Amino acid sequence: MNRAGLAVTLTLAVLVGSIFGFYAQLDLDLAGLFFNPDTHMFNINGQSWASCSRDASLWLVALLSAPAFIAIGSKLVLPRRRMLIGGQKAAFLVLTLALGPGIIANVVFKDHWGRFRPISVTEFGGADRFTPWWDPRGECSGNCSFVAGEPAGMFWTLAPAALAPPQWRLLAYSAALAFGATNGLLRMAAGGHFFTDVLFAGIFMYLVVWTVHGIIFRWRTTRVSNDTIERALARTGLAMRNGLVAVARSIGWRTDEH
Fold first, then answer.
1. How far is 258 from 254, CA to CA, in rounded Å?
2. Most buried among 76, 122, 219, 249, using CB within 10 Å?
3. Which domains does the chain have, with CATH numbers?
């Protein structure tokens, strides 16, 4: 997570965003590579192996994120126990997953950026209007095409890659990018997303991971230690326990009164 990577990402966003902004037809042309005009279907839409691949990808993301959620959950339940993994790493993984695929992709964009999916537009046999990536004024009302939600989750693997040992980090980053790109390609082949949906999913996820990594690990003014995070979780866990005890006693007193 260095400035060179940020510069490359922002340059790619401006360059590709501008090209596909001025020549929106490129999105349709790339989607058309996967569309069969004889069957009026996208090549892998509805095929079982594609569904299995999607499920396997989601399970891999769940497995990579599970240790962080377990560590935080167990700390809240058992506040006096040490966390299973460091507080910084756990917070980093959970926050990036919640902010990136959770809030930015699926709440901010997909429910408010009215771009229809390739499978829905008139150019590929649908009934809806195509809009370029930059235009949020389409008629799609929810779970829309921009940005690509599942690829955003796959590109989130940049977060665990950032925690890999230095000698393995470049390989881990490459694997995360390949994982996200492959999933995005499959979603394009199924008519689920345009190229720019996938590209900006990857760009937004990198920016989220880069920013949260800086806040927790790199920047002196915001950096927090493992102990600070563990103490905060312990206080929260104790407060939750005390609250539950108070509620239980209150219910018990009311029961005794009757």
1. 7
2. 76
3. 3-257 (1.20.144)
